[in-house]
């Protein structure tokens, strides 16, 4: 099916519910705040995919840091997985990032999420020999 894909605007609770069901939330993150921050910044967004009935069934967050584009929070509703919707959402996010001027796109996959790494490899993404380090600033 063809999704209707647009910026997520008024529906943060539905997106948060989707992410919780998809296992993407963590106690130390505030997903609603993540959505608001991404939507408040001109170089990032959250794309939402709706079915014909207007139900939010897919999301992806995209941001361009001036050097690379990044993807986060890709999720498809459990009852709609395996229909090509994840591929469509990634393509939409790639298009959005290209429009921002990003020459390359990257993403991080939690080490315990092997299935999603296989999904991205199916879409042409290649593993990188990098170690990701981080520190909280607030
Ligand atoms: C990852 C996810 C978004 C994939 O969405 P989806 O709609 O089921 O994927 P699609 O149907 O678009 O699959 C696209 C292609 O990837 C393949 N694929 C999907 N899942 C796969 C897997 N686990 N392993 C290998 N290939 C996979 C499909 O076979 C399909 O191949 P094809 O187009 O060549 O036939 C979905 O499983 C999901 O929401 N998972 C939970 C949330 C999550 O982990 N998000 C990632 C956070 S980093």
From TrEMBL:
PROSITE patterns: GNAT (PS51186)
Keyword Acyltransferase included in the entry's annotation: yes
PANTHER family: AMINOALKYLPHOSPHONATE N-ACETYLTRANSFERASE-RELATED-RELATED
Keywords, sorted A to Z: Acyltransferase, Transferase
Residue intervals of the N-acetyltransferase domain: 3-138
EC number: 2.3.1.-
Official protein name in the record: GNAT family acetyltransferase
Organism: Sphingomonas quercus
This protein's record includes keyword Acyltransferase: yes
Pfam families hit by this protein: Acetyltransf_1
GO terms, molecular function: acyltransferase activity
Enzyme class: transferase
InterPro entries, alphabetized: Bact_Acetyltransf, GNAT_dom
């Amino acid at each position: 099916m063809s999704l209707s894909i647009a910026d997520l605007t008024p529906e943060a609770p539905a997106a948060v519910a989707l992410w919780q069901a998809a296992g993407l939330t963590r106690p130390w993150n505030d997903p609603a705040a993540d959505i608001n921050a991404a939507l408040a910044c001109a170089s990032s967004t959250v794309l939402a995919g709706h079915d014909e009935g207007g139900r939010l069934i897919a999301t992806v967050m995209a941001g361009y840091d001036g050097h690379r584009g990044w993807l986060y929070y890709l999720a498809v509703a459990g009852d709609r997985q395996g229909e090509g919707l994840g591929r469509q959402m990634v393509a939409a996010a790639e298009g959005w990032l290209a429009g921002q001027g990003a020459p390359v796109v990257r993403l991080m996959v939690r080490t315990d999420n092997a299935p999603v790494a296989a999904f991205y490899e199916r879409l042409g993404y290649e593993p990188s020999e990098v170690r990701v380090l981080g520190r909280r600033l607030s």
